[in-house]
Amino acid sequence: MNTTDRAPLIAIAMLAARADGSTDSAEQAAVNAVVTRMGSPDVSRLAEQVAAGQLKAADLAAKLSDDEARRTAYEGALAICNADGPANAAELAFLEELRSALGIPPVAEVHTGAPPAGPLDDFILQQAILTGALEILPDRLATIAILPLQLRLVYLIGQRHGQKLDVNQVKDLAATLGLGAAAQGIEGVVMNLVGGLAKELLGGLVGGATRVATGAAITFSATYALGHVADQYYAQGRRLSRNDLLALFDRFKQEAGTIFPRVQSQIQNKAGTLNLQSLLAGLRGGGA
Fold first, then answer.
1. For the segment 237-248, what is each residue's pLDDT rounded down to a tens digit?
2. What are the pLDDT digits (tens) for 44-70?
3. Please, are residues 176 and 248 in contact by the beta-carbon 8 Å criterion?
4. Concatenated DSSP letters for 63-109?
5. Residue 108: is its pLDDT beyond 50?
6. CB 188 within 8 A of CB 26
7. Which CATH code for domain 3-102?
8. Using CA atoms in the order 178, 159, 218, 67, what is the torsion angle rounded to 10 degrees?
9. Second label for 201, Cα 20 to 30 Å away, from 6, 138, 187, 209?
10. For the chain, which residues make up each domain, given as ranges?
11. Closest alpha carbon to 251 in 267, 217, 228
């Protein structure tokens, strides 16, 4: 990345943190991470300019040297606006303004509603397709939506079975299935998106820090198996043993492996219509 991009990238990050009129500790930590990645320059002057309203997103966007820098700016702002929870109206407005200024085209909106009143099988399959599609998006931060979607899936299935939806239920199920910690780079964002539930949940099945190498098939299978295990688990009043859960998980992963070739084209088509910003907004209040 061109060294001339550093100042506008940092300033855009600062603007994102202040998009709703205030900067909390989670947003400040996210800005600090951007500064560190830029080599930890002195940003006191930039901070003063941002606080005084002297810097505008459109002007900063015009200073970025190439598409990579523009993509980095938007992805960083997106993460910061979601660092303290799903982006609110002011933050979404800022992100839309920034997206337009950066010349990043919008794509179709994605909705992730509650499961239908009928059988859960189709809902679980569609969520597995959605998370698989996120794996193949070019946006490096698309994976911040995978873990909340998987957690949300468990919540909604538990709700359908009349279970109280609390932190420990999801943690217990995930721990039993041997799911590891999320990649450190996105864990803070994910935890805030789902009310602090993502720590040590779900990242292992999608590869943790090496998730990208595992591909859409692994994420699809993980989500599919997780959904069906949760369905069985809550349907039977959380009385399944650890061995039963693990056996079910293995069986449903194998089943997912046979299904994946039949839905691979659907996953690719879904990836072509995903809007990460809209998806994150749709997760607002979807699990906690």
1. 888 888 888 888
2. 999 999 999 999 999 999 999 998 888
3. no
4. H--SHHHHHHHHHHHHHHHTTTSS--HHHHHHHHHHHHHHTPPP---
5. no
6. yes
7. 1.10.3680
8. -120
9. 138
10. 3-102, 121-282
11. 228
CB-CB neighbours of 7 under 10 Å = 18
Cβ density class 223-261: b for 16+ within 10 Å, e for less:
bbbbbbbbbbbbbeeeebeeeebeebbeebbeebeeebe
Place of tokens 């009143």: 117
pLDDT tens digits for range 211-237: 333 578 888 998 899 899 988 888 888
* 191: CB partners within 8 A, 6+ apart: 197, 198, 199
Single-letter amino acid, residue 141? L
Cα 159 from Cα 164, distance rounded (Å):
7
DSSP structural state of residue 201: S
C-beta separation of 13 from 51 below 8 A: no
